[in-house]
Amino acid sequence: LFVYNTLLDGYCKAGKLSVALDVYSQMERKGISPDAFTCSILMKSYCGEGRVEEAESLFQKINNAGVSPNVVVYNILIDGYCKEGSMEKALKFYSQMTDDGVRPNIITYSSLIDGYCKRGDMEAAMELYSETVVKAIEPDVVVYTALIDGHFKNDNMQAALTLFREMIEASITPNAFTISCLIDGLCKDGRVNDAVKLLGEGQTSPALRKMLQVDSSCSFLNGIVYTSLMQGLCKDGRILRASKLFSELRCHGLKPDTIMFYVILQGHFRSKNLPDVMMLQADMLKVGIMPN
RNA sequence: ACUUACGAAGAAA
């Protein structure tokens, strides 16, 4: 069973669900009965392809076969429904798991919270956040990051920054995800300068690093942060600064991807720099990126 | 050290 599960997980992670399902029926033929691991591996793959209904069927089937769903199995189903925006169904399984005596954990909450954030229902998201505090399920960096991102995307920079502060006060260390949400949010709010400043300080100032409680090995300057900054600069008409960032990517061990090229191209178009557009196009082919 | 399963970030459509 262990070997089969490992194999199933491998196929699923390689995006070959159909092969995994073949292997699964082979298991059934051999009389090897699935367990919660088997169930969660296949369900996750179904959800990843947007086939949440089929994940639920499998859930019911295995449930009927006498495998009791554990917290991971429930989490996958709940997250699947959250990602497709069906919060009602997600909540249904959330209460079902509670009735089954399966305790929701921080991952359950972060799926639900992110689901509400993506739907723009920050009130519901914040309510669940308070619930974690009440139930003594410590909110972690993922929950805070989802909420910060949600607040920014729903045009509430103040709430986002307040949560960021609270998170640090709670001694939760922001990671690269957290920082990229902050930077992207600031940029989209037209505060590119603040974003650059925050990053610059984070790179150089031990004091800020200490305040953010990150160690020196944590680099926030990943490709996503660069993209946000470049887009912010472009929208601000500062295509030269953006191009400069773009050209220094390599010095930081990053390589430009399709999205970055798109952002910079768009910037040149905005500034009507047709010659630069042509040059970029050539560069793009040179580094082996095909326009999509 | 990790080692069968679950949650958060960038362009466009």
Number of strands: 0
Unreliable spans? none
What structural class do helix, strand and pairing data support? mainly alpha
Termini Cα gap = 42 Å
Outline the biggest β-sheet: none
Strand content: under 5%
The number of helical runs is 17
Gyration radius over CA: 23 Å
Percentage of helical residues?
over 70%
Order of helices and strands: HHHHHHHHHHHHHHHHH
Envelope shape: globular
Would you give an account of this structure?
The relative contact order is 0.05. It is globular and about 65 Å long. It is mainly alpha-helical and 292 residues long. The mean pLDDT is 91. The protein has helices at residues 2-13, 17-29, 36-48, 52-64, 71-83, 87-99, 106-119, 122-134, 141-153, 157-169, 176-188, 192-204, 206-212, 223-235, 239-247, 258-270, 274-286. 72% of the residues lie in helices and 0% in strands. The two termini are 42 Å apart. The chain has 17 helices and no strands. The protein binds one RNA strand of 13 nucleotides through α1, α3, α5, α7 and α9.
